[in-house]
Amino acid sequence: MTISDPATDRRVFRPTVLDLGDALLRPFGHGLDVPGGIVPALAAAAADPAVARWTPLGGSGPVDVEAYLDRCEARWADGTAAPFAVVDAADGRLCGNAYLVWTNRDDGVVMVGYWLLAAARGRGLATRAATAATRWAVEQADARRIELYHAVGNEDSCRVAARAGFPYEGTLRASYTYGGGVYTDEHLHARLASDPFTD
Ligand SMILES: CC(C)(COP(=O)(O)OP(=O)(O)OC[C@H]1O[C@@H](n2cnc3c(N)ncnc32)[C@H](O)[C@@H]1OP(=O)(O)O)[C@@H](O)C(=O)NCCC(=O)NCCS
Fold this sequence. Notes:
The chain is of the alpha+beta class. The protein has one domain (about 5-190): Gcn5-related N-acetyltransferase (GNAT) (Aminopeptidase, 3-Layer(aba) Sandwich), CATH 3.40.630. The protein is built from seven helices and eight strands. It has helices at about 5-10, 40-45, 50-55, 55-60, 65-80, 125-140, 155-165, and strands at about 20, 25, 80-90, 95-105, 110-115, 145-150, 170-175, 185-190. The protein has an eight-stranded mixed β-sheet with strand order 1-2-3-4-5-6-8-7, sandwiched between helices. It is globular and about 40 Å long. It starts with 5 loop residues before the first helix and ends in a 7-residue tail after the last strand. The site of coenzyme A has 22 residues, from helix 3, strand 5, helix 6 and helix 7.
């Protein structure tokens, strides 16, 4: 017999599209229609030097894009994560990613991540995507605390965290490997559901 828990039952990510005006957040999957095809677009993203250096997408060697898309579809299907593609609203090209995953559903804790292709940087897209995804997680899925981790050397990401309203909470020692087997220190930033959204 399955016992239903109303609190955790609400804490499920259901496929949705979020509109940022100049860009859309769409669920990643094999069916995502981007110019040139999603597989080459994701392979190019994984090969971007900053994405490869600072994210799990490219950090563990050549990325198996088909397997990555399989995992995205599986996570949307079971509601345990929300891997969004950020796509240009005008022409549909892939701009980046905003990713949410439940790290503790009982306690309502979610982790957020993001990357942008180089051509999409410098116009606030990561800040706006992270904010929109976070707000959706709070309002639609009852997220209580959203955590954001980045390698200490990743100052671009630290600025995204500050702009998106995630205060710095501390430095974790040798907490994560972004590839190459070397564990790096990370900053932990977080915002609470009770922190007001300013937009
Ligand atoms: C981290 C990363 C996403 C940041 O990209 P970004 O374009 O610098 O960040 P944003 O999209 O928030 O844009 C911020 C810039 O746009 C400007 N901007 C313009 N309009 C803006 C708006 N409405 N809101 C916020 N910023 C705006 C900001 O002033 C800032 O410019 P600056 O860097 O010259 O000061 C990008 O460097 C990246 O993909 N890196 C590799 C992957 C990575 O590190 N991911 C994070 C892992 S933890």
